[in-house]
Amino acid sequence: MIGKPLKQTDRRIFLKLAGVASLFGFCKTNLAVAKQTVAKQTGSRFQEGPNTVTDMETGLMWEKKLKSGSDDWRQDLHSVHVACTWAEATGGWIDAVNEERFEGFSDWRLPSVHELITIIDYAQTKPPAIDPVFGPVVSAFYWTATPLGFRPGLAWNIFFLDGVVFVDDKGNKNRVRAVRSIV
Q: What is the full DSSP assignment across 102-141?
């Protein structure tokens, strides 16, 4: 029932990428093309900086995570281990990234589910399902800024172990990665 808290057994709703394609407005053909494009990750697609990766195909600049031990975003904003609730990710964490003017910019945001899918490499044969150019990666759930429209307490996230798209309770803690548009 809409509006009721999720039971422990319902906390993670498993949805395969192809199974949620219609929710994203994809048709099967566009989904297949998107998967092929992501699988063709070449050295020329990504431009690597010391703390960012720019995707030349999408026009997005991504935060590169740092290998450090803290999981508290108040102590280390860019740690690969930082985990936040959705409210923290879309509020305090991203506000702090912008306040510090990470890499000289103050227009960082949490990516949409469409954007986060673009860095998943479905051709990877072993975890994580993301190009190593993005720095250290934890095979975990990563928040998107996209809420689930008909369930306001849920938002989309992606499991970086294998690139599967999920829905999770906004009160749970998941990993975060900032993005900004360069165009």
A: GGG-S--BPPPHHHHHTTB-TT-SSS--B-GGG-S--SSE
Strand partners, 147: 155
Query: What gap in Å lies between CA 144 and CA 87, rounded to an integer?
Result: 11
- pLDDT of 136 reads 87
Asked if the 57-181 domain carries CATH number 3.40.50, the reply is no
Q: Which of 127, 148, 146, 122 is nearest to 138 (CA)?
A: 127
| Amino acid found at 167 | V
Q: What is the 3-state secondary structure (H, E, C) of 11-56?
A: CEEECCCHHHHHHHCCCHHHHHHHHHHHHCCCCCCEEECCCEEEEC
- The domain segmentation of the chain, as residue ranges, is 57-181
Tell me what pLDDT residue 25 has.
45
**Widest Cα–Cα separation across the chain:** 48
- With a CB cutoff of 8 Å and minimum separation 6, the contacts of 50 are 64
